[in-house]
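User: Here's a structure from my thesis project, written as structure tokens. My advisor, Dr. K., wants to see whether a designed sequence matches the one we expressed. Can you design one independently, without my sequence as a hint?
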């Protein structure tokens, strides 16, 4: 499973990230953290093994392969 998280940080202003884990909650990992503040709207394309998301702060759509490459 994949989910987004962001928090207000007094030092870094805001920190956004996409995390992933197995469906039982184990093997939790931070998947994407750089150049994002308010990630949301996750969509998986299983045919191309691609994860898409919107960033409401930067007002754009991004993608990354599920193996973490080609962002």
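Assistant: Designed independently from the structure alone:
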């Amino acid at each position: 499973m994949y989910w987004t998280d962001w928090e207000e940080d007094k030092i870094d202003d805001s920190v956004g990230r996409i995390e992933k884990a197995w469906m039982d909650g184990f093997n939790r990992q931070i998947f994407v953290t750089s150049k994002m503040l308010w990630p949301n709207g996750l969509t998986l394309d299983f045919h191309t093994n691609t994860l898409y998301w919107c960033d409401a702060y930067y007002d754009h759509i991004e993608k990354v392969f599920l193996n973490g490459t080609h962002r």
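When you compare it with your expressed construct, this may help: The chain has one domain: 2-65.
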